[in-house]
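B., you asked whether I could sanity-check this one before it goes into the benchmark set. Here's the sequence:
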Amino acid sequence: MPDRISELRSKIKTLADKKVAETMQWFFKTGRGDYGEGDVFIGLKVPVQRKLAREFRDLSLTEIKKLLTSTVHEERLISLFILIDKYQKMDEKGKKEIFNFYLKNRKGINNWDLVDISAPKIIGKHLREKDKSILFKFALSKNLWERRIAILSTQELIKNDDFAPTLQIAEMLINDEHDLIHKAVGWMLREIGKKDLATEEKFLKIHYKNMPRTMLRYAIEKFPETKRKKYLQGKI
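And here's what the prediction gave me:
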């Protein structure tokens, strides 16, 4: 039986682009002291990674784990694309297995794009009608990526008009020190606003004067200019 991981890695190596890699190293803040410190990019654009994921969608969870624990960012992202595809096609037992696999191997989900593409589609979908306590646990984590998983997972809940978990987690993260959390919380509040503007504004009127500026800007990005300025000037 051919070694599918070696085959995939050979294709990745062939398609790698040093200039793209350099741009990604900068864009994803991989320098010393940055949130992505030590992350390694070899230079594959996302459409290429999606195509490879489709080609290798038959990989087992054991094989996927090899990719998700790789030092190469693109290998981890490809593994998540495959995992999402598998989750969508599984029965309830299979979905639970992938959910648990994701949680057990979340150490490899350690940059914002990895979280954003996968947390809603696996964690969020799985918890739609289940106990969501894991999200609140992650919201209190010292690990940046677990906190981002907590808030981003609720994107799927918002789509189904379940706003309470997002609002609770947003309140828990209101004083978070990291810009990536400010952006994520603001983004999810904005998503609530698309579905129910009154619910978003009820939350904002309580918290907008105390929330980080970036969080507020993301939350009110789609507001009419006059109203947006009033929020920014603290005159609501």
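One thing to flag: Residues 20 and 45 are 7 Å apart (CA to CA). Otherwise nothing jumped out at me.
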